UniProtKB/TrEMBL annotation:
Consists of 3 domains; the N-terminus binds the ribosome, the middle domain has PPIase activity, while the C-terminus has intrinsic chaperone activity on its own. It holds the Pfam family Trigger_N. One of its GO terms (cellular component) is cytoplasm. Residues 113-198 form the PPIase FKBP-type domain. It is an enzyme of class 5 (isomerase). It catalyses: [protein]-peptidylproline (omega=180) = [protein]-peptidylproline (omega=0). This is Trigger factor. One of its GO terms (molecular function) is peptidyl-prolyl cis-trans isomerase activity.
Length: 387
């Protein structure tokens, strides 16, 4: 027994102490009706206590008392956007442009929407620089892929023609080696190809998944998809307005532990995004938490407010609401019944949908009580296609 005591005694004593401290803390917190936010910082308290007593202090943050604002005083914008024949045609034109084919035209002077293939060489102070030289480089004029001076120089040239011109790199250009400097470029056009759009016909309909090649059925499908997308985006705008109004209506301190937790999640998401973009050392490069603190504090405060509103007003989610939201998602897919099964078969995915529906319920509840101004949003602004 003495050997076991020497070998395992300190470890077992620590286990027992931790369990007793945990029980004591839980009892005190429960009796005081406190809600802990984050992990407590526990420290021994020896002053005034003999060896037979184990005493400790626990320092922790608690959830704040949230006072709901008067929803009738909130100013909220409700977004609205129309889907008519013009918007349907615009969408059809975009679909056609996405399937453009390029046909070489001899003797054609390059113009916007043509694809040009060229060789180029750039020099700064008569010295070539990395990334400044290429052969058989192809791009479509007028899409902003190249700097304006580069596109302007290529515009109007024919195959076989050469042009030399100065190009001033912006001060914030992606490559620090050339940012803010002026280079001399020489380009030689190898090929000019005209963009040819497909006709909106039976063959085009088949390419877009309309097996029968029914053009009018395709047009109806496009209208339905567009109306769902517009509805989703206007709801997102309205939701943003509601959340902004709620955030401005309250002011209370939020636990730093929750803010730090949210900031850490955002940093992790930022690293994942950098990895997806192919940025090297994304896992180790420094990302300051301070960059996220203000937004994380806002998100935590808004989350606490919304939770209080849900509890106070009983804004529960009904099973039929979840089913309706899933079916709404599924309508955008070729086999909606498979999408419905995909969501229903997984509790985590169902929880995500429930969270979305719960937010929608909060938005509708606020809209029913707040001062609402209808905001007419142009189709271009809503879809992000404005020039």
């Amino acid at each position: 027994m003495s050997m076991l005591s020497r070998s395992y005694g300190p470890e077992l004593r620590m286990e027992v102490l931790n369990a007793k401290i945990g029980d004591a803390l839980e009892k005190t917190v429960s009796e005081s009706k406190l809600r802990l936010a984050g992990s407590p910082n526990v420290a021994p308290k020896t002053e005034g206590n003999d060896d037979s007593v184990v005493a400790f202090t626990a320092t922790f943050e608690v959830y704040p008392d949230v006072e709901l604002p008067d929803l009738s005083t909130l100013d909220v914008s409700k977004a609205k956007s129309d889907v008519g024949d013009a918007e349907i045609q615009r969408t059809i034109d975009i679909l056609r442009k996405q399937r453009v084919t390029f046909v070489e035209r001899e003797g054609r002077a390059a113009e916007d929407n043509d694809q040009v293939t060229l060789d180029f060489e750039g020099k700064i102070d008569d010295v070539a620089f990395d990334g400044g030289t290429a052969e058989d480089f192809a791009f479509v004029l007028g899409q902003g892929r190249m700097l304006p001076e580069f596109e302007e120089a290529a515009r109007g040239l024919k195959a076989g023609e050469t042009k030399t011109f100065p190009l001033a790199f912006p001060a914030d250009y992606g490559s620090a080696d050339v940012a803010g400097k002026t280079a001399q470029f020489t380009i030689t056009i190898k090929k000019v190809e005209e963009g040819v759009l497909p006709e909106f016909d039976s063959e085009f309909a088949k390419q877009l998944g309309q097996a029968e090649g029914d053009v009018e059925k395709l047009r109806a499908d496009i209208r339905g998809n567009l109306e769902r997308e517009v509805s989703s985006r206007t709801l997102a705008r309205t939701k943003a307005s509601v959340m902004e109004a709620l955030a401005k209506a309250v002011s209370f301190d939020v636990p730093k532990a929750l803010v730090n937790e949210d900031a850490e999640k955002r940093i992790a998401a930022a690293r994942e995004d950098l990895k997806q973009r192919g940025v090297p050392n994304a896992d180790t490069m420094p990302i300051p938490a301070d960059a996220f603190t203000a937004e994380s504090e806002r998100r935590v405060r808004l989350g606490l407010l919304i939770n209080e509103l849900i509890q106070a007003e009983g804004l529960k989610v009904k099973p039929e609401q979840i089913r309706a939201k899933i079916e709404e998602f599924a309508q955008s897919y070729e086999r909606p019944e498979e999408v419905v099964r995909y969501y229903i078969s997984d509790k985590a995915r169902l929880a995500e949908v429930e969270s979305i529906v719960l937010e929608d319920n909060v938005v509708q509840h606020v809209l029913a009580k707040a001062k609402v101004a209808e905001e007419q949003v142009s189709f271009d602004d809503l879809m992000g296609t404005a020039q």
